Amino acid sequence: MSRKSKEEIAEIYKKMQDHICRELEIADGTGLFTEDQWERPAGGGGRTRIFKGGNILEKGGVAFSAVHGPTPDKILNKLKLEKADFFATGVSIVLHPKSPMVPIIHMNIRYFEMDNGVHWFGGGIDLTPHYIDGADAKHFHQEVKKVCDQYDSTYYSKFKDWADEYFYIKHRNETRGVGGIFYDQLTAKDDAEFGKILEFSLSLARLFPKVYGFFMNKNSQIPYGENEKSWQRLRRGRYVEFNLVWDAGTKFGLDTNGRTESILMSMPPQADWEYMHEVAPGSAEEFTQNHLKKGIDWLSFD
Amino acid sequence: MSRKSKEEIAEIYKKMQDHICRELEIADGTGLFTEDQWERPAGGGGRTRIFKGGNILEKGGVAFSAVHGPTPDKILNKLKLEKADFFATGVSIVLHPKSPMVPIIHMNIRYFEMDNGVHWFGGGIDLTPHYIDGADAKHFHQEVKKVCDQYDSTYYSKFKDWADEYFYIKHRNETRGVGGIFYDQLTAKDDAEFGKILEFSLSLARLFPKVYGFFMNKNSQIPYGENEKSWQRLRRGRYVEFNLVWDAGTKFGLDTNGRTESILMSMPPQADWEYMHEVAPGSAEEFTQNHLKKGIDWLSFD
Q: B274 to chain A, minimum CA–CA distance in Å?
């Protein structure tokens, strides 16, 4: 893929939102997306699509946005950049399934460009099972690695480590889930590399409904009871803690007058907190707790 | 009251925790506090008391701590202070009632002192009704003002405005509840003023079980149904958003390796999120939404 303009990238990402929504509706079987179009007072806007009436999915959304205007001071100061206008476009997804046996998933691809030529890509995909299953985590990482390896043999290991660092709930000393990949501020040195990174982000986005559709179908058939539902609500509480306390994207959005309802579409439908919750020795909950760690090589897990 | 040493203040605050716990157990009727004693690796520790088995209260705690050691860099940098050891003690309370008709309440008193003589008091009390009732808010502010006025005729209006600013959910453009008072870094210029501020903090703490006991008793008798419970869960979600995104105390604790379970005892038992929730015109929920604003003079509300 050759170099594309920011407007072209926004168009491609918008079509990707369409593709992903369609695939998720098919995988779920009954739920449908409803769309909110919104405008950003300072420039640009977006299409937030929220899932309703799901058979497998309980709450979640697939959001597209393309915003522009003067670069917020927060970014300028943090990255020591000169004043200039910016353009940012991306697709962002969080899905909370009904069943505690189906993992929560998050995917994001984004492109940022300034009038002075500064540009970068960012993104990632990570899986947050309420119950960690070694084979599922392995399959997920294998699929993500396959996509990475098509573009750059260094991507997977670099971006896997980055995800372990990023999706980390520091005050709990645990990872959000089994990780995946995360990358940010990838700047292309020439048109060929630009095309490569863009194409990589699109392949990742195309992987998303395939790999998550697999878990939706397979794991929604696993029976569960009230014990598993109650653990799910506690794990959803940790998801809330990560997003509101540590997630740089969420914090930045809330801090800079982003569209709150679109940013917080990542919140679960319901979350519980319990003081000093303890998992039973030998339980699946304990197995999960013990595997919320950085640095696990899921590819060779067995 | 004359000047007290930091150890004496810690002892007084600890007794205050005992007093408040006893009063709350009486007001609730069935629930009891269980205690966790903990130590801080860098110095000091605390007694976290969590409420269980309540008739009126569903979840909450009354925490005492007295910690010391090298002052964290975050504080030194923020306040441009020279390196020195610190000592900090306080009582912190958050209570989530079962009934959506009973408000959530928060109270905190704290004292901070450094080896180089720097010292200050901080604290506050604020009420977060799931359903705002003008008469209740008026009564609460009247009681708080009475305590303030005993010590300083400027306290109430200064600290009421401070609470409006502090207990504000910026990304929702709404206050957390009907406010109350908030104060921080009150430094005494002499022993008499030191005694006055300390005594003020104790009066505030003594007011707490009286005024909240009044609401526990009165409001737990108001009938409610599933509609009110579901609104309560959404409002609890906003409480979570405030505490995790904006509350300086929570953020500081989580950032500096505080005891997570004690810090997050403020979390509700359960919280819901719904995309773009809309309140019905003319409903009690709409009345509440319309009164989550800064600058309301609750004393003259009718």
A: 6
Domain ranges of chain A: 6-300
Across the interface, which of B172, B254, B257 has its CB nearest the CB of A260? B172
- What pLDDT sits at residue A2? 80
Report d(CA A201, CA A198) in Å as an integer: 5
This model of the complex carries an ipTM of 0.95
Q: Which of A293, A268, A265 is nearest to A65 (CA)?
A: A265
Give the CATH architecture of domain B6-300.
Answer: 3-Layer(aba) Sandwich (3.40)
The predicted-structure confidence for B253-269, as pLDDT tens digits, reads as follows 888 788 999 999 999 99
Q: CB contacts < 8 Å between A and B, how many?
A: 75
Token pair listed for A80: 């020591």
- The predicted-structure confidence for B46-59, as pLDDT tens digits, reads as follows 999 999 999 999 99
Q: For residue B171, indicate whether it is catalytic.
A: no
Q: What is the pTM of this model?
A: 0.96
A49 to chain B: nearest residue by CA? B275
The secondary structure of B140-168 as a DSSP string is: HHHHHHHHHHHH-TTHHHHHHHHHHHHSE
Of B68, B106, B130, B141, which is the active-site residue?
B106
**Token pair belonging to B269:** 């038992």
